[in-house]
Amino acid sequence: MARKNFVCEWTPKSFILTVVIATVLFNECFIYIIQSFRWPDIGIADYRNYEEEQVILLVSDPQLQGYQMEPPFPIGSFSRWDIDRYLTRTFGLVYHHVKPDIILFLGDLIDEGSTAVDEEYHYAYQRFIDVFSAAEYTKKIYIPGDNDIGGEGRDFRTQKKVDRFVKNFENITGVSTFGFIDYIKLDMQFPEPRFLEKRMLATSFGDKLGPGIHILLTHNTILPRDKPFVISILQQVRPHLIFSGHWHKANVFLCNDCMKDDDSSWSVKQRNIEDMKGWMVTNLTEKPFSITEIMVPTCSYRMGVPNMGYGVAIIRKNGELSYTVLWTPERYKMLYGYLVAICVCLLVCLASRWLRKR
User: Fold this and answer.
1) In Å, how far are 24, 27, 59, 132, 192 from 333, measured between CA atoms?
2) How confident is the model at residue 226 (pLDDT cuts 50, 70, 90)?
3) Domain 48-334: which CATH number of 3.20.170.30, 3.40.50.300, 3.60.21.10, 1.20.1640.10
4) Could you tell me which of 245, 193, 192, 252 has the C-alpha nearest to residue 219?
5) Interatomic CA distance for residues 294 and 29, integer angstroms
6) What whole-number distance in Å separates Cα of residue 313 and Cα of residue 106?
7) Rounded to the nearest 10 degrees, how much is the dihedral formed by the CA atoms of 284, 286, 289, 290?
8) CB-hemisphere CA count at 13 Å for 202?
9) pLDDT score recorded for residue 276
10) CB 234 within 8 A of CB 291
11) E-assigned strands of 196-265?
12) pTM of the prediction?
């Protein structure tokens, strides 16, 4: 009986189908898994006592795209769908990798949160809940950014905007104690038109703070500001650490002896950590007059910066801090990959037609 030889012959259709499937699988599945393998190990047991050490996940500037500034259907609908899906996938992978005790959202949660009408805000808020649904049962703290309640340029802050944020998320100021850490929300706005009010608010917070670690949460960065403007507020809340966002980049600011009154200026050292791959380790309580501020990068690829990620901090009761950034894939490169795949498929089609005519 004759033996049949099965030979796999590449046809234009089979080649195009292979290119399409491979591109989709890589861009929508494998790239996320590959990137997660590059993240440093947390190195802490899943079952831990948050009274002794806490794992903190930091989410900054997700800025879910709205409805006013996006192109009309179908481009606008596709862009909202794609950024929501990107954030859902990256946050889900990061959340399960970190298994945090608490999640801190550092403002600019919704891109048009300040300008949206109520119906648009409702839809955007529901999308926000869906995107971060993996952490439904984890403790969270939200602070607003200028995109949420105004305050930048001609986008003025109003009480209505503040009330809408409070109704959907939580109060924009306050002290939230979790374990041995006091999380302080002061809503620092620059330039601040109500400086005396903020100073009085900080004084009232100072009476509520315990002997543990004090962390100040702010959307706008603090330490690069002029010392006379913020020193009296910092002296009231005595933060060991500041978390901020707004610039969409990863930076660390260190100010030695900045809590002293002996000078009208301070020397702040800035370190860019956009190339961070491991852990930064320091102790927050060894130098009583020093403050560290960590600026967390944006997690959205729509912010015009090349590097996106989520901050992770491990803080122990003795003041030891370990911090890193879990970088996420560059979505624009993936979208360009689709464009290249389309061009290749078109060239194959044209070439096959030309060869058939020959």
Assistant:
1) 13, 9, 22, 24, 39
2) confident
3) 3.60.21.10
4) 245
5) 31
6) 14
7) -40
8) 22
9) 93
10) yes
11) 213-217, 241-244, 251-255
12) 0.93
